[in-house]
Amino acid sequence: MSATVDVRTEQAVPECHIHETGLLPEHLTAFRRQGALILRGLLDPDELRSVQAAADELIDEAWRTRTMTDTIWTLEPHEPDAAPVRIEYVVDKSPVVARLAGHPLLLRAMEDLVGPNLIPTWDSMVFKTEAGAPRLPWHRDGGLYPENAVGITGAGRVIDVGIYLDPAPEDNCVWCIPQSNYWDTDRANETTTRMNATEWDTTGAVPAVMNPGDVMLHNILMLHAAPAVTGKRRRVIYFEYRPAEVELDLGPHVPEYIGLKQQVLLSCLAQRRAAPEHAGEQPFEYRPAASLRRWEGLPEPTTMRYPHEEYWRW
Ligand SMILES: O=C(O)CCC(=O)C(=O)O
User: Fold this and answer.
1) I need a labelling partner for 46 at 20 to 30 A (CA). Which of 87, 154, 181, 248 fits?
2) Is 126 in the pocket of ligand 1 (CB under 6 A)?
3) How far is the CA of 225 from the centre of ligand 1 (A)?
4) Is the dihedral of CA 77, 98, 293, 260 positive or negative?
5) Domain assignment present for 224
6) Which range of residues forms the domain containing residue 172?
């Protein structure tokens, strides 16, 4: 049954060939233990091609307009060596990415791991153009619970999903420290300070080597980083998911955010269902607990972009 699960070493990032096996209990356990899981070949070639084209449009638009809106640059955008490296709210900016956010296999995996009340929180594209991108230092992701973070999400119910549009070889991939999702804050801080003191330290880390169409799930508490790179391209769409009940109790957003982001998810699902290219697939059915159906009674949405800073609770 578990022949394709790479659990040979507890240091590795476990893998799941999701179209062949589905997500098995041992994949779930391996993800919870290690803090990361690779879903090989999740995107079919046609969808991969259309998401690659959509990503190019977004990146070309950033270069053309030199905009700072929702876009992070290596330097001030008007400087000659500046390059864009990240674009926020990509579901709102591209219908192809919105349909991607309704991917049934991906959402079923999120339902298994996050729970039935999953809501989408972040949606971004992180990319390296040939112009280069600096190192992404060792870190845990944003929006951590300030107290008892490991107690709340050590086992991985707040998940960042990276959908790869290009190859990520060892010299241009995310490196992970498996099981660091269970470290307390002092150990995590001490480790990131030490490892970020030199340009590129991979002590205790493993590379997550990826192919186009692969997906990596990581627990936001797992320490990870990426090396500086020039002359190479890598585009990754990131979606983050959280349990609505955790969001409701603890934030980081205000309760109102939950219903709005549920509307975003439902709209992505409807857009995917209506697309002829996805006609043959079994759609994901969103079934949160009755008390957490917080989109009911809300007015029809006019946007899929809800800036985090307008909804922070902390
Ligand atoms: O894809 C990458 O290079 C890493 C992105 C990342 O870790 C982040 O944005 O927090």
Assistant:
1) 87
2) yes
3) 7
4) positive
5) yes
6) 15-310
